[in-house]
């Protein structure tokens, strides 16, 4: 009787205050939704609160080290871990390959990819979440990225590697016979100058000229960094969706009228695209010309080119910085690699100075290739979450020898640190150690050939897989092999501040790296 009286009184009060009634309904709806989310993924463990709240994930993203948190989660809770009420991550290479297969029924999660759009409602090949549209656009771009319609691709890379060597020799390197100390050089900045000049040259037909100027021409790099930090903060706080709100979204998004940030960078990129479109595609066959020939037009063309310049520059620059840091911080590896390079030069297995080593020559140097693979394994240069959506009806997968059911509409992403750096099952008990020699095994020994094949297959996932494999992989690897070879052929490097070799921050899965000061000495 007392409970009925209390209920009647409560209902009466709510009826007198409609606002509280609506608020109560909304809160109850929200609570019920969270309970349902928690329950449907209750079999997957994760850090405290991840079953009912996004707080853990938000803090990881905003702090700029989400890759470490994802690595921790899979290390502690298994190959599939929960990082939010409706989001899982995996460090299983087999599961990730299955999810990303060419004919996979999974799709990209709009929650993640639309947060990476440059402009509201406008997609590029990276942000497109409709599988059919993505595949169609990708087919139009494949030839340009693969170099099939860009015969000057390698020569363009060589031009800018030579400019990098000249810049270092003329401005920063101390003569080999000099007793004077070298002028410290921020390697992080120079690597970004190189990659931006390369991608603008092979993509737009004209380099931005950062290496020649030894400066951030047009403030592209400053603008890119500012834009990525803003995007990372809004994504971490869960407010990226505001950009899709009519009127408000346009007001808070980058504009080509902006004096700084992504907006300014977009304006400069559009000028380059428009100028290039005025020329015949036969005049110069580069990536942009290939895109046009294969039917990418209008604003779609601008979106793809801008994505290409931003992502192609940042990811390759991060790779080069990581590789050089691990070489410089491991004297044994440094000496062994430089000896292989010197031997190749003396034996005529590399193009004679001042020419740049050919890509085909560089790929025949086993220790160089092993060092590059190992550095990108122990410190993956791209650590995006890459959220996918499990198809409706769910999916039964095998992980670590056990069948696991993934409920439909669940988001699942990539834990780069767990899959590569911490993966003892694939790389051995010392997986966290930078040891290029792990890539050399006795293939005649039982099981070693198969183990090496699994290592390669897992390591290749750094560039994605199947439907979503990185289009720019060919260009990036040509650039990386040539640059590392030529830097160690021409100079000796030492970290200026070994106790703090760089400043690094994860922004939207890309690494913002700066203050990587080195002392340089000529070798020739």
Automatic annotation (TrEMBL):
CDD domains listed in its UniProt record: CYP57A1-like
Q: Does the keyword Kinase apply?
A: no
> Hey, which pathway is this one from?
Hormone biosynthesis
Name the residues that span the membrane. Answer: none
Obligatory cofactor(s) = heme
Known Pfam families for this protein? p450
Could you say which residues bind heme here?
470
Carries keyword Iron? yes
Q: Which UniProt keywords apply?
A: Heme, Iron, Metal-binding, Methyltransferase, Transferase, Virulence
State the Gene Ontology BP annotations.
methylation
Q: Which domain of life is it from?
A: Eukaryota
Q: Name one GO molecular function term.
A: heme binding
Q: Which PANTHER family match?
A: CYTOCHROME P450 (PTHR24305), P450, PUTATIVE (EUROFUNG)-RELATED (PTHR24305:SF168)
Please report the name of this protein according to its UniProt entry.
Cytochrome P450 monooxygenase ABA1
Q: What is the lineage of its organism?
A: Eukaryota, Fungi, Dikarya, Ascomycota, Pezizomycotina
